[in-house]
Amino acid sequence: MQASVSYRIFNVCNIIFLSLLALFCVLPLVHVLALSFSNNSSAAAGLVKLWPVGFTTNAYEFILRKPAFLQSIIVTLQRVGLGTLVNMLLTLLVAYPLSKEVSAFRFRTLYAWIFVFTILFNGGLIPWYMTIKWTGIMDTLWALVLPGAVPVFNVILLLNFFRGLPRELDESASIDGGGHWTILWRIYVPLSTPALATISLFTIVGHWNAWFDGLILMKLPEHFPLSTYMQTILVRMDLTSMSGKDFEILKEVSDRTAKASQIFLGALPIVIVYPFLQRYFVKGIVLGSVKG
Fold first, then answer.
1. pLDDT at 291 over 60
2. What pLDDT does residue 288 have?
3. How far apart, in Å, do the first and last CA atoms of the chain sit?
4. Number of structural domains in the chain
5. Measured between alpha carbons, how far is 18 from 22 in angstroms, rounded to an integer?
6. Residue 83 burial (C-beta neighbours within 10 Å; 0-12, 13-18, 19+)
7. So what's the pLDDT on residue 28?
8. Angle (CA) 224 230 234, round 5°
9. What's the pLDDT tens digit per position in 65-116?
């Protein structure tokens, strides 16, 4: 079928617009990467655009020389692994019953509003801190995982996705003798790959980027996750723990190059993971937000 002239013009304009939008999204990251590999004077003078000026790896050497950096990566990987597992498991267990009709789960609406209430209102920072302290999990990995174990926004996305699945699947599984566990793990979960991939991406990014809770809940620096450690050494610039070699490198590292290397190292794992989940991302968030 021959496309009309107006349709072809629209396609061309659309491609140009989306290409420019993609370029504007990529250029800041390229600039940050170039800045992180540039020398002190060029970065301070604002000479760095999209290519390193006075190429140097001093900013990365300054960060990677510290054993605490490697330890913070381990802590972050542990947090991402355990946190994603706990979040996904509890999200599934909460979203499944809330996706049922009122006839099947009498108090479904009441429980759903209780969860929504937690999005709109919270107890504040001090009650949150005191609750974690009284549970005895301060300065442990669980302090970074349990307070946000049930992400309500993800629950809402997933329960709406579940509600869009055909109810005949539940009925046929029940007739064959399948219980709720069988329906959840053998029917709902395999059919919800786009939604689960989207929620997993939200969860991974959230745990990877979180720094404030590690700053106030961790007492020992070796327990800091990566984002908290980066904030500590690059914003506060703790000089007491530096060696002579660190001071030599620090002479060639400006505040801009140090922060640029921090931003790039922090974003790199997510940039690597995202392409593998991108094909599920749009489909999952759209279906999970409009159905039900």
1. no
2. 47
3. 37
4. 1
5. 6
6. buried
7. 87
8. 135
9. 777 778 888 999 999 999 999 999 999 999 999 988 888 888 888 998 999 8
DSSP letters for 35-102:
HHTS-HHHHHTT--SSS-SS---HHHHHHHT-HHHHHHHHHHHHHHHHHHHHHHHHHHHHHHHHTS-T
Q: What is the CATH number of the domain that holds 213?
A: 1.10.3720.10
pLDDT at 280: 64
Q: How is residue 149 written in tokens?
A: 């174990």
Residue 43 lies in a domain: no
Q: Is residue 89 part of a domain?
A: yes
Are 75 and 230 contacting, i.e. CB atoms less than 8 angstroms apart?
A: no
Residue 151's domain spans which residues?
58-290
Amino acid letter for position 193: T
Could you give the angle at which helices 255-290 and 152-163 cross, rounded to 10 degrees?
Answer: 30
Residue 18 lies in a domain: no
In a domain, 3, yes or no: no
pLDDT of residue 231: 76
Nearest to 92, CA basis, from 180, 187, 196 = 196
The whole-angstrom separation of Cα 137 and Cα 264 is: 31
- What 31-36 contacts at long range (C-beta under 8 Å, 24+ apart), as own/partner pairs, is 32/260, 32/263, 32/264, 33/260, 33/264, 35/256, 35/257, 35/260, 36/60, 36/257, 36/260, 36/261, 36/263, 36/264
Residue written as tokens 């699947």? 169
The C-alpha atoms of residue 279 and residue 274 are separated, in whole angstroms, by 9
Look-up: residue for tokens 């190429």?
A: 55
Tell the burial category of 262 from Cβ atoms under 10 Å away from its Cβ (0-12, 13-18, 19+).
buried
Distances (CA, A) of 258 to 14, 61, 209, 246: 38, 10, 17, 13
**For residue 140, what is the DSSP state?**
S
pLDDT of 290 reads 45
pLDDT in tens, 184-215: 998 899 888 888 888 888 898 889 888 899 98
